[in-house]
Amino acid sequence: MKVALWGNTSKPLFWELLPTVAAWMEGKGQELYLTTHIHKRLKDKDKSRYNYSIIQKADDFTDVDFVLAMGGDGTILSAARGVEHRGTPIFGVHLGGLGFLAEGTIENIYTRLEAIITGDYSTFPRIVVEATIEADGGITVTALNDLVIDAGEGFRLMKCSLFSEGNLITSYSADGLIIATPTGSTAYNLAAGGPIVAPWLSLFTITPICPHTLSSRPIVLPTDSDLTITFPEDAPGARLTVDGQLEYPVPAGVKVLVRKADYEVNMITFEDRNYFQTLRTKMGWGQHNGGGS
Question: For residue 284, is it left (φ>0), alpha (ψ between -120 and 50) or beta?
């Protein structure tokens, strides 16, 4: 198989594991591909030490069988943007922290890789949310987890209105607005009081951040309707943040269109993995501290 390695190069543990991973791949007769980001950060002696090819451009991901994303959830999210519409499956291995999206750990990475090589795995498609900032030329971005719209730098209250297919749903006065996919429902959305949505459902969760009213609550909407977010005429502009990693200015007087992207991200999973068990073990869902059974 051809395996593309995507990693969090800021983690020392990634560099500690790289020689072992590369040697394991070569020993198993697998073809290793490194992103240019990793290749450029390799020491010269290591460039000749490892047997690998280079992912020169995004379309090269179509030539590999899967992407091995080593890091945290943020690494998997960035890998999903790198693969984008190309459909290449992603296998996430978390190197510390929560690692909710990862299907592998440092302890079982080679067992999982062996299972993938022998075909003992499945892929789970995850929906992606797409937003278009209707400025000159239009800017379109996609997120696996969530989009966050807020007032930008400072502590200004943001006012906006949410429409579905041209029909007003409600208006908000809040610190911001989270538009989460089911994958992202356990991230910022959950911390802001939004609901957990099972990842096999095709839904968006819209959750206001610190709304300045007692009646403003999260709402769950189907993804087959396009959403529009507008701002008051006197609003100075806003900011759109993609998966907590990329930021884009929303100029004054500009609308933001939100819809389900035309593609899904394929995540590698295994038969012994269970979503609700992951919720219990990693998020502490349903656990009670003391006081009765």
Answer: left
Is 291 inside any structural domain?
no
Is the pLDDT reported for residue 184 higher than 50? yes
Q: Residues 159, 226: one domain?
A: yes
Q: Are residues 7 and 106 in the same domain?
A: yes
Three-state SS at 179: strand
Distance CA 51, CA 31 (A): 8
Please report the pLDDT score of residue 278 as a whole number. 86
Phi and psi torsions of 204, nearest 5°: -115, 140
By the 8 A CB rule, do 90 and 266 touch? yes
Token pair of 158, please?
């943001």
Torsion of CA 96, 142, 166, 185, to 10 degrees: -10
User: CATH code at 114?
Assistant: 3.40.50.10330
Q: Is the pLDDT score of 206 beyond 90?
A: yes
Provide the number of structural domains found in the chain.
2
Q: Are residues 114 and 188 in the same domain?
A: no
The residue segments making up the domain with residue 165 are 128-262
Q: Are 114 and 42 in contact (CB under 8 A)?
A: no
Residue 9 is classified by DSSP as: T
Mean pLDDT of the 242-254 span: 95
pLDDT, position 135: 84
Residues 130/141, Cβ–Cβ less than 8 Å: yes
Residue 106 banded pLDDT, cuts 50, 70, 90: very high
Encoded tokens for 120: 């003992």
Active site residues: 73
289 within a domain of the structure (yes/no): no
The C-alpha atoms of residue 176 and residue 164 are separated, in whole angstroms, by 18
**Quick one: 211 and 117 in the same domain?**
no
